[in-house]
Amino acid sequence: xxxxxxxxxxxxxxxxxxxxxxxxxxxxxxxxxxxxxxxxxxxxxxxxxxxxxxxxxxxxxxxxxxxxxxxxxxxxxxxxxxxxxxxxxxxxxxxxxxxxxxxxxxxxxxxxxxxxxxxxxxxxxxxxxxxxxxxxxxxxxxxxxxxxxxxxxxxxxxxxxxxxxxxxxxxxxxxxxxxxxxxxxxxxxxxxxxxxxxxxxxxxxxxxxxxxxxxxxxxxxxxxxxxxxxxxxxxxxxxxxxxxxxxxxxxxxxxxxxxxxxxxxxxxxxxxxxxxxxxxxxxxxxxxxxxxxxxxxxxxxxxxxxxxxxxxxxxxxxxxxxxxxxxxxxxxxxxxxxxxxxxxxxxxxxxxxxxxxxxxxxxxxxxxxxxxxxxxxxxxxxxxxxxxxxxxxxxxxxxxxxxxxxxxxxxxxxxxxxxxxxxxxxxxxxxxxxxxxxxxxxxxxxxxxxxxxxxxxxxxxxxxxxxxxxxxxxxxxxxxxxxxxxxxxxxxxxxxxxxxxxxxxxxxxxxxxxxxxxxxxxxxxxxxxxxxxxxxxxxxxxxxxxxxxxxxxxxxxxxxxxxxxxxxxxxxxxxxxxxxxxxxxxxxxxxxxxxxxxxxxxxxxxxxxxxxxxxxxxxxxxxxxxxxxxxxxxxxxxxxxxxxxxxxxxxxxxxxxxxxxxxxxxxxxxxxxxxxxxxxxxxxxxxxxxxxxxxxxxxxxxxxxxxxxxxxxxxxxxxxxxxxxxxxxxxxxxxxxxxxxxxxxxxxxxxxxxxxxxxxxxxxxxxxxxxxxxxxxxxxxxxxxxxxxxxxxxxxxxxxxxxxxxxxxxxxxxxxxxxxxxxxxxxxxxxxxxxxxxxxxxxxxxxxxxxxxxxxxxxxxxxxxxxxxxxxxxxxxxxxxxxxxxxxxxxxxxxxxxxxxxxxxxxxxxxxxxxxxxxxxxxxxxxxxxxxxxxxxxxxxxxxxxxxxxxxxxxxxxxxxxxxxxxxxxxxxxxxxxxxxxxxxxxxxxxxxxxxxxxxxxxxxxxxxxxxxxxxxxxxxxxxxxxxxxxxxxxxxxxxxxxxxxxxxxxxxxxxxxxxxxxxxxxxxxxxxxxxxxxxxxxxxxxxxxxxxxxxxxxxxxxxxxxxxxxxxxxxxxxxxxxxxxxxxxxxxxxxxxxxxxxxxxxxxxxxxxxxxxxxxxxxxxxxxxxxxxxxxxxxxxxxxxxxxxxxxxxxxxxxxxxxxxxxxxxxxxxxxxxxxxxxxxxxxxxxxxxxxxxxxxxxxxxxxxxxxxxxxxxxxxxxxxxxxxxxxxxxxxxxxxxxxxxxxxxxxxxxxxxxxxxxxxxxxxxxxxxxxxxxxxxxx
Length: 1325
Fold this sequence. Notes:
Distance between the termini: 48 Å
Number of helices: 43
C-alpha cells in the first residue's frame, strides 16, 4: 500500500501556544490543506453478537486502509456502563509477597503450583532444556504401534481424510514424530554443531525410544522444510494461522528540492523503497496469546507488595528436605494460606519487578476499565491488556563486509523478564526488517532534478523512510481499530479475553532514539524526554536541574504546528533543509521536519509518544557515562607521568575472577581499552577502586575515589531486578551524588593535568583524516596536528550524563532497568547473525525471515508434542501400576533394548561438565561423594610438619567435629563459638571420637546454593585454587554506614575441602556418619580505616596473624557459608612475609603471573578489600532490603536452626501435569524393587529414560536390592564399618568416582541447613 505524506499531517491546527514563535495560518487555501488524520473514535461500527464472532474481530471500516481517509461524522456506539470494580488481594507467599489486582483475574499464574526449576538460574542449574521439554522421553511401550496414529488410534494409512483434518496428530505436518525430531534438532538455536550438539543428536534423538529409523527411509530435508513452510491451519484460533506470516512490501517517500516549488506536498515526486519485510502486528499479538506457553503470562496488571519484615517472619517455616528425600519431590507451593487482610498500601512495601506490576501498566489498564464495555460483551468476559515493547537497532551481520540488517523486535511485557532474556524460549517476535535507503536514490534524484541529493536531503529521506515504515505497520490489518475496541482471543491458558494492545517501551540507543523521536542529534535540546538545554547538563541533581527537566516533551498542538509549517515551506516554497528560517521554528525544541508516525495515529487517543523513549542502561551508562570517565582517568594517568599506567595495568592483571564469568580475567593492557563490550566496562568499574588506590596524590585520589564509589553505587542500584521505595530513593541520591562529584572533578582535578589524546584516540583520528584526504576533502591545517596528540578535556555536557536522573523515575513507571535495557535486543541480534550463516548470502533478508518463521512453527509443534507425550506417559504409568496390582506379569523386554546403556551409564544430554551433575537447587550445598583422593591425616600432617597452617591440625579437627556432634544434643555453636568451645573437650572426649581409618577424603569444589534478593535460586562454586573466598554471618548486627566496629559478616579463604566419616564410641551412633569440613584461613576486618556506604570506601580486611587472640586457621561446617566473596588485594599497601611463612595454605591458591614478584609464593598482600559491588546479590547483602535475604539474619537463623518439624506440603516440587504420573511411578517402582526378577526384566525399559525420574528410581531400587542380598549373604561382615571398608578407595586411586559424580546434600551434618529456602520454606512470590 502506497503511503502518502499527507497522512503525516493533521487536518487543522490551532497554532502555537506562544504566537511569537511562528506565524499563525488563519485561512489556508484548499490547495494547501492536508488530508485529515484518523480519528478512531469516529470509526465506531456496530459489532456482531459475541457468539457470532468466533474469536475473530470484524474487518472494520474499509476506508481505514485507504491512502486518503475521509472524515466520518462523530457518533458513539451504545456501550455497557463500566461495572463497579473491587480490588482483589491474592494470597501471601512464605516470603511475604502478595499482589493487589484492580479486578479479580480469571487466572493468576502465580497461584498455580510451579516447580523450583522455574525460579533457578538456567545457566547455573541447567534447567533451560527442562523448561522446553516438559516431559521425560517417550518410552517404547508408550510409542504407538507402527502405522497407528497416536491420537486417533487408527491406522494412519487407512484413516479418512476428514478424520485427519478434524483431529490431526500433534506433529503435523510431518508424517511421523521421528521426522519432526530431526527437523527440530536441525533448527535449534545452535548452528555450530559442537560436541554437545552431537551428543544431543545421538542421545536425545537417536536413542529416543520413540525414535524409529524406518520412519526416515525416504527422508528428504528439503522436502520436509518445504512442507513446513507451506503448512498453515485454517482455524483462526490456531497460532499457525495463514495470516501470521511475512510480507514483502514497499514504501514511498517524497523528494524535496531546494528552489523547486510544488502546489502541495502531494505533488512532489515519490521514491519507492523496496525490500521491506514485515508481519501483521494484530496477527503477531493473536498468535502469541493463543500459544500454550502464555500460561505464565500476566494479562492483568497488578501491584506487588511485601509485608513488613516483622509480619513476613510470622509465616510458618519448614526445613529443607533431608538427604534421603528425592530432590524432585521437594519444593514449595506457590502461596501459603496466609492472606493480606487489607489494602497493600497500608500493610505492605511496594515492590517493582516487572512491567506488568509497574505504575504505567496499572494506570493504562485503569483507563481501559474506565471506558464503557463493548456492546454484546458479557459481564464475565475479561478485559486484558497486551503490553507492547519494541526494540530496533541496525546491526552488522559479519565482521567483514557490508552485510547488515535493521530489525524491529516485538516483546510482550506480559511475559516475565526472566523468560524474555532466554533466547531458547523465542521471546522476541520479529516484526519487521527495515531496509536502508538504496544507493539508487542518487540516480533517481539526479534524473528528476539534474543534480545529486545533498547530505541534508539524504538525512531527511532516511528519517522519512523510518516513519513511513512504522505508519505502514500501524495501518496493517486494522490495528488502530483493535487499539480502540480490542480483539477477542481464545488464549492459550483456556481463558477468553478481549485484549487491548498498548505501547509502553521502545528500547534503542541514543542515535536510534533521536531518529524515532524526530529530534536533532546532539542539538540544543538533546534529550528525547525533556526540553532542557545542553549547557545546563552540568547542573545534574541540583534543584534548578530538577525544575528544568520537569518541562517534559509533549506531543501537543504547538509541536504539530511547527512541523506542519516547515514542511509547507520545504515543499511549497522550495526552502532548503539547512535554512536558518527552519531553525528559527524548530531550533527551540531541536525538532526535525519529520512527523512521527506514532504521533499521527496515537496522539488523538491521549498518547504521548515521547514517553516511549526510556533511558538505556547498557549504552547510556556502561558505554556512556562510565566509559567517558574511565577514558579521562586514563588521560590523567598519562599526564601524571612516571610508570602509573604500567602499574595500573599490572594491578588489574592481578585482580581475581569471581563467579561464573561475573568478573572475568582482565586483559594485559586495560588502559588501551581496545574493542570492549559493555560487560568489560562493568567489570572494570566493579574492581576499579582497589586498583586506582593511591595512583594520584592527595585530594585528587579522594575526589576520583568518591566519584568511582558513587558510580559503583549507581551501577549496582540501577541493575537491581527488584526495587522497593528505599532503593529507588537511593538511586536518585546516587545520581545527585554523581552530579556533585563530576562538578568537583571538573573544577578541582581536571584543570591540574594537561590531558591529551590517548594513543588509541590519536591513531583513530589519523585514520579519519587519511580517509577524508582520500575522498578529496580539505583537511589543510590538520596535517601537523596529525603527528601529535591533541589536547582533550572532559566533556560533562552530554545527554548520557543528563539521563542519570531519569532512571529512578523510569523504574517507578516501567519497572527495573532490565525491562527497558537494550541488552535483550542485543542478544537477539546474535540469533540474526546465526541465521545469516544459514543463508546463501544473496538477498539474505528474505531467507532470514523464512528461518524465523520456521523456528516459530517448530516451537508451536514442539509444545503440542510435549503435551501429547505427557498424556501418554500418564496413561502408561497407570497401566503398568494396574497390571502390577492385578498380578499380571509386565510385558517382556524389547530384545533390541539389550544394547541400551545400563542405568549407571545413563546421563543427561550435555552433562560432560561437572556443573551439570545432580546440583539440586533445594539444598544449601553439594559436595561429591567421591573417595578417590584419600589422605591419611597423620601421614599428611607429619609430611608437612613445620607448616604453621597445620599446627595442631588433628587436635583442632577433633574439637570441631565434637562441637558439631554436641550441637545435636545441646546448644548449637557458631564458627567462633566452636573455636571457643574447644577447651571444653578433654582428652577423654577426643578419644571417644573415631575417624574411620584416620582418613579424610579431599574434594575440589563445593557448590553453594543460595536465594538471591529477588527470590531466584543461584549457585556459587567454591574452588580453593580459583575462587576460595567465602563469607559467613558474624553474629554481630551489621552497620551499613560503617559508623561502628560491628560488621555483619566474617571472611575466610578455603584451603581444603574434605569429608571424614566419624562416630562416637559408646553412643547411639551405631554407624559411621559422613561430615563435610572446610579448612580455612581467616580474615579479620580492619576497623582502623573507615568503610561502608557512608564513608564511600570498601571494607578493608587482613589475614589474621598467628598468635592473635583469634585463630588464623580453622574449620567450618559448609552449612554456615552464606556466599562466595570477592576479595581484592590492596595493591597500594604492598606485600609482607610477617603474616605467614612458606605454607601450603598459600600455595594452594597461588596464581602465577608473568610480572608477579619472585617471592610471591612466600608473601601475602598486607591488606585486602571486600568488593561490595561484585554482583547484585552481594551488594544487597550489604545494603539491605532484599526480599530474599530476610531469612538470612542473625536472629532468625538461630531461632529456626532448632526447627526440626517435618517437611510439609511447601516442598512438593512436582509439575501439576506430571504429579499423577510421578505418584503412580513411585508406587510402581517401589513394588517392582521387591521383585528382583521383574526388576531385571524391566531394566532395559527403565534405563531408556536418560536423566528422568524413573532412571534415578531404578538405580536406588537396584542398589537397595543388592545391599539386601549382600546383607543376607554376608552375615560374617565387620559390623557397621564393613560398608565403608568395602567401598572406600585405596591410596592408589582405584575408585572411579570423582567430583563430577554423585553429589551429596549438605543436610547430613546438621539437623538444618543454614539457607534461606530452608529457613522460610520456599514459595514463589
